[in-house]
Amino acid sequence: MCDGFSEAALMMAAGGSEGMGAAAGGYTAMAGVGEAVGSVASMAAANVGTIASLGTAGLSGVSAFTQASAAQQANKYQAEVEQNNAQLAAYQRSAAIQQGGLQAQQSLLQTVQVIGEQKATLAANGVDLSSGSALDQLATSRFLGAQDVNALQSNAARAAWGYQVQEQTHQIQSGLSAWQANTNNPLAIAASATGGSLLSNATRYAGQGG
Questions:
Q1: CB within 10 Å: which end of the chain, N or C, has fewer?
Q2: What are phi and psi of 177, to 5 degrees?
């Protein structure tokens, strides 16, 4: 009787140990599932961050490209404006020279007319034109007339020089703006703005199994 009871007790104890082992195994399996879920969640969070980084880098590149394109177009427009201003200054320089020449010619004609009238008046009064005060009067008229012509020509030359300086300045500005437009590469600036983040983030995303 005692032996039967002992065997039964031993069997119950063994059964209990097996039950406890099974329970422990269940807890271990549940812990493994929890770790797997946590790993998946961490990877998903990392992928979301990587995708967000890719989006930010892309927006930065687009913004840089847009700004560079606008700057390039502005430089091209400014180059054309400066070139037009240079041409206008060239026209004004030519006009100043022509106007100065015309004014000098008109002044010379007026001097000739004045001297002619003086000679006629002196001759009508019986004054000898080749000597004395009559000769001095005519010489003075010629001198003053020449002074007027020289002044008009000098003024025209100064005006023409000023327009020439403006023309050269506008040409320099036009060349500078054209150079800035040619060296302003929107694609290169956009790529530089991203700082390589697009490639590095894409590599990181691919390495994480994204």
A1: N
A2: -65, -40
pTM for this model (two decimals)? 0.57
Residues 145, 116 contacting (CB under 8 angstroms)? no
> Which tokens hold the place of 38?
């946590």
Q: How do residues 187-199 score in pLDDT, each as one tens digit? A: 777 666 666 555 5
**Alpha carbons 76 and 66: distance in angstroms, whole number:** 15
pLDDT, tens only, 116-150: 999 999 889 888 888 888 889 999 999 999 999 99
pLDDT tens string 85-107:
999 999 999 999 999 999 999 99
Three-state SS across the chain? CHHHHHHHHHHHHHHHHHHHHHHHHHHHHHHHHHHHHHHHHHHHHHHHHHHHHHHHHHHHHHHHHHHHHHHHHHHHHHHHHHHHHHHHHHHHHHHHHHHHHHHHHHHHHHHHHHHHHHHHHHHHCCCCCCCHHHHHHHHHHHHHHHHHHHHHHHHHHHHHHHHHHHHHHHHHHHHHHHHHHHHCCHHHHHHHHHCCHHHHHHHHHHHCCC
Q: Closest by alpha carbon to 71, among 197, 189, 201, 209?
A: 189
User: In angstroms, what is the C-alpha Rg of the chain?
Assistant: 50
8 A C-beta contact, residue 76 and residue 181: yes
In degrees to the nearest 10, what's the CA dihedral of 181, 187, 193, 196? -150
